[in-house]
Amino acid sequence: MSERPWRVVQFGLGPIGVACAIAVLRHPKLELVAAVDQDPGLEGRALGAFLPMDVPSSDVVVAPDLGEALEEGVSADVAIHTTQSRIPQVRSQLEALCQSGLNVVSSCEELLWPRLAAPQDAEALDACAREHGVSIIGSGVNPGFVLDTLALVASAPSVDVKRIDARRVVDAASRRGPLQKKVGAGLSEAEFRGLAAEKRLGHVGLVESLALLAAGLGWSLERTEEKLEPKLADAAIKTEHVDVSAGQVAGIHHTASGWTADGRELHLDLQMYVGAAEPGDEIEIAGNPPIHLKSVGGIAGDTATTSMLINLIPRILEAPPGLRTMLDIGLPRSF
Amino acid sequence: MSERPWRVVQFGLGPIGVACAIAVLRHPKLELVAAVDQDPGLEGRALGAFLPMDVPSSDVVVAPDLGEALEEGVSADVAIHTTQSRIPQVRSQLEALCQSGLNVVSSCEELLWPRLAAPQDAEALDACAREHGVSIIGSGVNPGFVLDTLALVASAPSVDVKRIDARRVVDAASRRGPLQKKVGAGLSEAEFRGLAAEKRLGHVGLVESLALLAAGLGWSLERTEEKLEPKLADAAIKTEHVDVSAGQVAGIHHTASGWTADGRELHLDLQMYVGAAEPGDEIEIAGNPPIHLKSVGGIAGDTATTSMLINLIPRILEAPPGLRTMLDIGLPRSF
Fold it and tell me: Looking at the domain A149-298, which fold is it?
């Protein structure tokens, strides 16, 4: 492990980005050297001014773009990239980071298994990263951990695996406002179905988790199926961010399944809704031996995504250049 | 993934070795090309003769040593090595495997974190593997998975980890005879303490799990403590292999703990005894966020170790030459 702290650029200052900046400032082996966000309301503001009191102080000032952030000779090892969910939205941001010689850990959900949604962008990003001698990885807790990486690692002591079921239940009431909106809390069922058809709500990354699982197992999926259904509220529920009446949408029930030609199956089941009584994660592997793991009380979403991004920094710094996935870095772990 | 099956030498035909040979014969991407065991009772016997009826047939004949196994131009990619627990006992076997150009996946418990028990042997093995362009790894389910690798991966979505507790309870009655003996089932407490003092019983590998965990987290342990206590039977219990009266030893309660200078802690707790009512595994991580994982019903020991060794074959074949650990191969997973 390096003697000096690794220097980090925080790219994107939404809720996850701010949480990452805080985690960097608190980490003894990381140093925050720059922060970028395109929101004009943030430009030029001292980052410290909008962080909690107990966070170590920082003299970083928010820059509107990467060029400005790095212009006075700031050098850095890695960027934590937390902006959007789709690869086409973030490709130019990631290329700019690579061109500045920065390795990248990103929360972009599609980047978990980039060849699925955007194979040409993925190829271009891989080439760009190699050209500049840096590595990029996309991850988080979901996608990135509970329904894919953890399920793969859980399969390590089992052979002849016929089926994996991974389930996650999240109480959206415990999560940030944008996430409660993203799962449709407070909509009517009709509104939900309309927005779902336009892909304007729901969770991004479930099919990427499925693809990562399949690739990790060496399975070729002959058929896949994705379903997004509303989870309706049995009773009224009110959170800090939303009011849901009984019968309105409380959140999502999102599933993705895949089948191989020789009858093996993968099933991912994600429920994210306000008022979920028993949040938790569960992985069942039908293999030899069978494996059944549970997380007691669940793995807290936003904090876990932030921590995952932080913990991937040493892994991406040691990875060979290119666009990487959770399959080809060293063992993910806290640092 | 390679098109042709990988060719495997099974080195050692004790219970785990035979189980590995069976798993290789059953695996569509593996081919068993040789089997070695020094037991004169096995030499020259057709392996198929002592395998269950439902295992695909094999014309492999047991050879007394590696030279004889490979002498008629048999070439192989990897050896599964399942003989002894201590590095000095197996060093020359591993060197011979490397010199024959074979990558090695071994169940030798001390090899999980080889620098702990035998740093000089580890250095020599690393040099030998590099010289011959092959890789070696030691793993299994315990050590190798439940109390170390899984605990590390479980920590990936958490930062500021202060403490990890990993506990495993195994019902030794469900395990092979040698393991029931190894945990002292049927001894008096005095006999147990005598043999324990001579290190003639107990589990090998718990301190290696502790060292792997610490290294994986980047922690330097200032102090460690290992304890081996007998677990006494409350009531008489009889297995296929042993009779235990009430008050006699049913098995072991083995713990290993470590503390860093800045107050972080690791605690491993292993109970292996006949009649354990609730076998299972549990990992608790005090970090941000906290993580609490349980395996429902436990992860079956011998089968899981066999499967783990099989599943490490693709990982060790793609690893750079040298003596490797679970920290520096790709994501462990079923294949």
Answer: Dihydrodipicolinate Reductase; domain 2 (3.30.360)
